[in-house]
Amino acid sequence: MLIRPLFLTKMKTEFYTKKVSRGYSESKLARFELIDDKHYIMKSKQEILKITSTKKLIAILGNHTSELSKFAKKNKISSGDPEELAEFLDYFHGL
User: Fold this and answer.
1) What integer is the mean pLDDT of 11-31?
2) What's residue 35's pLDDT?
3) What is the DSSP letter of 23?
4) Cβ–Cβ under 8 Å, residues 7 and 41
5) 79: helix, coil or strand?
6) pTM
7) Domain residue extents for the chain
8) Do the Cβ atoms of 12 and 38 come closer than 8 Å?
9) Coil, strand, or helix at residue 7?
10) What secondary structure does DSSP assign to 12-81, as a single string?
């Protein structure tokens, strides 16, 4: 069964415990910080590929490479920005 390529994001966070103040340093509250997002594209139920660059994403999608390259260059699509990747896939689905 063929499905439309889906965009997936794995968010990595890290938990920092609270730090008590000592001397002149201020205390810090416990917090979560976003470390790094990893983006993937799911072509089929068995095939999930990591997006490392826009050119590799175009190669993964396979169809309409010239139109996708022009769109990516015109709109300055970055492989690290989830909003831009979602816009790129919306354009691909519209072709």
Assistant:
1) 88
2) 87
3) T
4) yes
5) coil
6) 0.72
7) 6-94
8) yes
9) strand
10) EEEEE--B---TTSPPB--EEEEEEEEEEEEEETTEEEE---HHHHHHHH-SSHHHHHHHHHHHT--TT-
